[in-house]
# Entry
Amino acid sequence: MNLITQFIETTLNLEDINVEEAYRVQEESGKRPFPIRIKFSNLKDRNIVLTAGRQSKTGVKISEEFTENVKNARKQLAAFARQKSRETKSRWALQEDKLYFNKKIYVFNEESSTVEPISDIS
# Structure
């Protein structure tokens, strides 16, 4: 835990980030070094660290971990967005399990295996 807080404070130059727990994950592939999984006290701290980690040039990869359902939804939404953006030349973005594209928000419906719009962005 001390290693994590030290990295956040010195390398990412962030203060007052609350970490609940941190531990190394031993993957079956045996790749080293083993990744470290961190649980933050709140969503705001997680987002601050993710943003700072993506902007840093340290060589340390900082990324989110999604559930299998969210990974599948993101995969389907990305495929849908790639296909539609070729036609319309529009940009798109994924956030968690939602797709923001052409001023609409889309989700993947697992029951019907389709991408469906849920609302408009005004």
About this structure: The first strand starts at residue 19 and ends at 24.
